[in-house]
Each structure stands twice: as C-alpha cells, then as structure tokens.
Prior knowledge:
By secondary structure, the protein is an all-beta fold. The protein has strands spanning 2-4, 14-19, 29-31, 52-53, 64-69, 82-84, 89-94, 100-109, 124-129, 137-144, 155-165, 173-178, 198-201, 210-214, 229-232.
Amino acid sequence: IYIDTCDPITDFDTILGIFDDCGNTISIVYSDDGLPEFCPEAGVNPPHWASIIDSVYLEAGTYYIVVTGYNTTIPMGNYKIAMGTLPEIIGSAIADDDSYLEIRFSEGMYTEATGNGALETSDFEISFNQNGGTATGVDIDYMSNTSGGALEGGEDTVRFSIAVQGESTGLEQVTIRTQSNASIFNSFGIGLLRSASITQNLSDQIAPFLVSSNPADGAINIATYSDITLEFSEPIQNADETNINNSNSENSILLKNANTGENLDYTITTSNNT
C-alpha cells in the first residue's frame, strides 16, 4: 500500500507511522519528509515536508496509521491523508512491425498528482538492450491512446509509437519506466514507482535462413543411410508455432526423391536451431 499527507490542506511538517498495536512505541515503518520533487501542492513550506510511505507490504491484520508533527512543541495544524494500493504496470504488447509498444496500467493514470493531465513522453525513460540482436536502438516518437488518438488523461492503456534503428530479431529488449516516483499518478495522487518498469522484446523482423547443410547442397554419391543435418540461423518452429519434433516434422519439412517425386519417410531429432 501507499500512504501520504500530500494535499493543499496539509499545513504542517507531518510524520507518518504504521503500528501493529495501539500504544506501541515502535513503528513498523515511518516517514518524515518526501524527496524535494514530491508533492509541490502541499500547504506546508517547503511542501515536501508532507510525509510519504511509498511502498509497504502488510500481512492480514489490524494496523494503526498515526500522523504526528516533526516538532511537537509547535501545534499541529490541518492535514489530509491518502491511502491506497499502488498503481502497477500489468502488461505490455508490441506491434508485429515494431511500430508501437503498448503498456497496460492497473488503473487510469495522469501526469499530475491532482488527477489531471495526459501522460507525456517526458514522464518516461526508455532503455534499450541489444541482447544479441541486430537492431541498435529505439526512440519514442509520440504517445497516443490505443486508437492512435491524443491522450486526455486517465487512460489505463497507452501506446508508445517507437522508431527502431535497424532490423530486429526478437532478441532485443526495450525497458520503459517512469523518470521518478513522482512522474505519473492515479486519480488519488498515488505515484507509479520507478521500480515498476516493464521490459518488452521487439518483434522478429528477419526470416530464418539455412546456414549450412551436411551433405552440402548439390553433393552426389551420398549413401542412402546417411544423416542429413540442417542448421538454421535461429531456432525454428512449425507454422502453427509448435515445436518441431518427430511426430509433426512432416508439416514443415519434406524429404523427396528428386527423380520420382516420391516423399521419403524419415525420423528427426532437433536441438535448438539444428
């Protein structure tokens, strides 16, 4: 869960604590101030003196959330407390042609803690891992809703139009995360944690090809009991996306007598791309 006192009503330096027993002097977790960029709308000066517990996991039970002041010699004033489950990234998908990447959130998200404003590309950070692939980089061009229209705020699925440098093999990975814990928010002003990133593989844009064969193409005088070994440029599968094995290989690989056109029976073993 997430708890904070970030609100224009909050007008003093708060401290938040969670206790597992009434009167217990030892808290499970407590918070004094947020980071400087946290909560610019709070009524206290400086505003980040509002408190934030941005992530805590609690087992089932009864707990006591206590709000107090940093300096108890100064009278406490007004405050507003917000509590809820943290928003999350729950999934992603990418277009077959790598033209866009979509991210699904657990709820509608906004660029402002007040629950207003459409998400912006500057709210996010994108990183690229070549991971043995052939593409060399990815950039975000713009963001839209799932229909390609402008974002209005509160969308739970957003589309990142991306530009990929080079052709991808499907090994390359793109990771998207927020710039900070205070970049995008749900309608209650709870921020998506920077640690809630999503990593998505690019699509495979390069068809596999035959790297080598043994016997070599065009070889003659090969014994009829010889093995034939084919090596491809990457792992291959049947057209229906099932792994190739001895029971289904004839769906994708034929062995023919070139003189008679007769299909020949065979058994097959496979390991990765061989």
